[in-house]
Amino acid sequence: MAKAAKKKANKAKSSKKSARVVARPKAAKRSAKPAKKKATRKPSSSGRTAARKIDPLNRKNYGALTPMLAVSDVRRAAEFYKNAFGFDVRSVMDSPQGAIHAELRFRETTLMLSPESREQNSLSANSIGNTPATLYILVENVDKTFASAVAAGAQVQMPVMDMFWGDRCGSVADLDGNKWMIATHKAEPTEAEMAAAMKQMMQQSQPAAESAAATAAGESEY
After folding, report:
1. Of residues 50 and 78, which shows the higher confidence score?
2. Is the pLDDT of residue 88 over 90?
3. Are the CB atoms for 146 and 155 separated by under 8 Å?
4. ∠ CA(37), CA(41), CA(46), 5° rounding?
5. Is the pLDDT of residue 201 over 70?
6. Given Cys at both, which of 71, 103, 194, 208 links 90, Cβ 3.0 to 4.6 Å?
7. Which residues contact 73 (CB under 8 A, 6 or more apart)?
8. What does the pLDDT read at residue 46?
């Protein structure tokens, strides 16, 4: 009887041991599963990693049209535009010969500056003697900005006045001879109102023009 019980106990031990042996390969099988691959960029046909997409219009830094002015001194001009009109100086590129490029920002508009160069036929307005271009800049308070421009060294071309198209404007020439018309939008007249206001403005300016012409003619006699 005791022998039978001992035999039964040994048999139970043997079956438990074999169960443990059988269980081990399953665990090993689970750990043998390959790790998940990390997400990587698909290589291009040339074998290189795909390049980041570039905006051909560079809308992050520039609008559709960016003026570039030739100036006698890039740093001086940048400082003037900051003080006169409120531009932010975004960057100035230096070289052993001095500043060769600057970029300024006014709201959504970028202004570039480059040094004038006679060798490259890139001259400032003062060097040429005049400019056919006028830069029209809209500000919150034309009278205040006009005064700041004059205080910074601009020359008055036309005092601030209300214009027939609804803007209040004044005109100045900057340190390099570039013309700036500073304006604040004040009204939105109809076409008929603009025509009437333009006619009135011309009538008011005609006597002054005739007087100036007569003065010039009188001076030419001597």
Report:
1. 78
2. yes
3. no
4. 125
5. yes
6. 103
7. 115
8. 59
Residues 6+ apart with CB under 8 A from 214: none
Residue 6 is predicted with a pLDDT of 52
pLDDT-based confidence at 52, cuts 50/70/90? confident
How far is Cα 31 from Cα 13, in angstroms, rounded to an integer? Answer: 28
Looking only at the bridges linking them, the beta strands covering 109-115 and 68-71 are parallel
CB 69, CB 127: distance < 8 Å: no
Region 68-209: CATH code: 3.10.180.10
How far is the C-alpha of 111 from the C-alpha of 103, rounded, in Å? 6
Q: According to the 3-state scheme, what is the secondary structure of the chain?
A: CHHHHHHHHHHHHHHHHHHHHHHHHHHHHHHCCCCCCCCCCCECCCCCECCCCCCCCCCCCCCCCCCEEEECCHHHHHHHHHHHHCCEEEEEEEECCEEEEEEEEECCEEEEEEECECCCCECCHHHHCCCCCEEEEECCCHHHHHHHHHHCCCEEEEEEEECCCCEEEEEEECCCCCEEEEEEECCCCCHHHHHHHHHHHHHHHHHHHHHHHHHHHHHHCC
Taking the complete model, does pTM exceed 0.90, yes or no?
A: no
Is the predicted pLDDT of residue 42 greater than 80, yes or no?
Answer: no
